[in-house]
Design goal:
Two copies of one chain form a homodimer. In chain A, about 35% of the residues lie in helices and about 20% in strands. Chain A is α/β, with parallel strands linked by helices.
Chain lengths: ~300, ~300
């Protein structure tokens, strides 16, 4: 049997799956993100039996970043300037490739999630560009153009631009160690928790919290739409599980765009334009398997 | 002789050129932008002799927008929701194609300029994504990815997202009829003139003007870089002729990014990353000719 591996490398856990495809998974396991050495060891132990039996055809990695995605770079496949303690300059691709000896596809968690949402949902494949935004511990955007993840200077880092910040209404300074009140600094799960002193889940139903959050996310989405002219934006991550948040965000995007683009997508058809992930919280790891299948 | 036509359709004038390539131009003329009927008539009269002789192989149009670039749309090739009086829903592509009876390539002025800066400058061709930002009457961004202009829902409209706006420092409300103080609303040539009561050229050397301008442009560029991870940004348009403005912008971009991306391009090598157009003010019309050559 031809099997593919998927690894979603996150700041708190690594999710590993093996399967023939998204509907035929053989095994799944989660490992807490400790040191690179220990975590990568556990991940490779998980896949090694399948590699040894010859069934494991390829592995895909969907990783937190920033990453070096330039195949010509001496540090290709590294996690680079991450603020995550102990993980700066970690050769994630190289370690896994060396130990498993199968082709390894490597990309950001959000590029993989975007790729997965297109690959496993054939109705999404004609949408170009196709975007996945995660609103979790951090905020990131994955971009698929012409069927392939967007690389360039590096990859999208669309949580890190500045937004209009009304200090009187929201005197919170933001949590980004690099930029303070950038999109991630104001609207990530970490920002919500630091601002209100409670986790997003504990703040359910508090209108002031979610009106503010929707406003920031909408401002971020407007940027992304204006720059990329995407045909669809999937928006996932833990924070988006808040009931009602998606429709608040949709309404704010339509309001802020104010009819300028003259398209129904950012008007009366916004509910089909900004959507939750069809693959739910598995978008990342199933995206990694999709990357492996096309590696 | 095989000739190609280029039309830069602007809000104040239409620039028309015929030539074998960028270095072998045969004829050039400018027509003021009056009514669509009159302007398009003059443009087609300019090209008609070359069309009739059979030398005119194709024409490229680089137009102000927003545009309908979807070939399957009944209004493909139209200028759509423009605030320019008399030009809403103008079938620019169709009129020119009908009268000249040669293949016509059609894109935004900024997509064409970006395409031209790559096409005529072979050293730029490997840079992907490659961007052209114009800072003139309005602000727009053209995007080339995988060698082709970015289309999607429509095209980039990267002058129309909101920026941090310090109302105390700059109590100016912005000039965008749709969004007030978006990037274009705060930093376009029209905004500068409305804020200070004098044209950009008349404000030469006034540090307060250009510090403020550079700050807004840098905030806009940070967005664009974070979302597209471009390998180069060319920045042109009338406002960028201000001496010293480019280096102010470069410095502010590096400062705002604060080392986050970990790349030299947005650090010590910023002078080669954000550059003025190699084709100068002819980037748009020569880009239109490049589009015609590849049509």
């Amino acid at each position: 049997m031809k099997l593919f591996g998927g690894i979603e490398a996150g700041g708190t856990k690594f999710v590993c799956m093996v399967g023939a495809d998204a509907d035929n998974l053989v095994k799944e396991e989660r490992f807490p993100t400790t040191t690179p050495r220990e975590t990568i060891h556990k991940v490779t132990e998980f896949f090694l039996p399948y590699a040894k039996s010859g069934e494991l055809t390829a592995v895909g990695i969907a990783s937190f970043g920033p990453l070096d995605l330039n195949p010509d770079s001496p540090t290709y496949g590294y996690i680079t300037t991450t603020p995550k303690a102990g993980w700066k300059q970690t050769d994630l691709y190289g370690e896994i490739h060396r130990r498993l000896q199968v082709p390894v596809a490597f990309d950001t968690d959000v590029n993989a999630a975007a790729f997965g949402e297109q690959y496993w949902m054939p109705e999404n494949r004609s949408l170009d560009p196709f975007l996945y935004m995660t609103v979790g511990t951090g905020i990131g955007v994955g971009v698929i153009i012409n069927g392939a993840p967007l690389h360039g200077l590096m990859h999208a880092e669309a949580g890190h631009f500045a937004l209009p910040h009304d200090w009187q209404r929201d005197p919170f300074a933001g949590v980004c160690p690099y930029h303070g009140d950038c999109l991630e600094g104001l609207a990530s799960g970490r920002a919500i928790e630091a601002r209100w002193g409670r986790s997003p889940a504990e703040l359910e139903g508090d209108d002031a919290v979610w009106e503010l959050e929707a406003g920031y996310l909408a401002l971020g989405l407007i940027c992304v739409i204006c720059v990329l002219s995407s045909e669809r934006i999937v928006i996932g991550g833990g924070v988006m599980k808040q009931p009602g948040l998606l429709s608040l965000v949709q309404r704010r995007v339509t309001g802020l765009m104010n009819g300028y683009l003259g398209t129904k997508a950012v008007g009366e058809e916004i509910a089909g334009y900004i959507t939750l992930p069809a693959l739910g919280s598995k978008a990342g790891v199933l995206g990694a398997i999709a990357l492996a299948e096309t590696a």
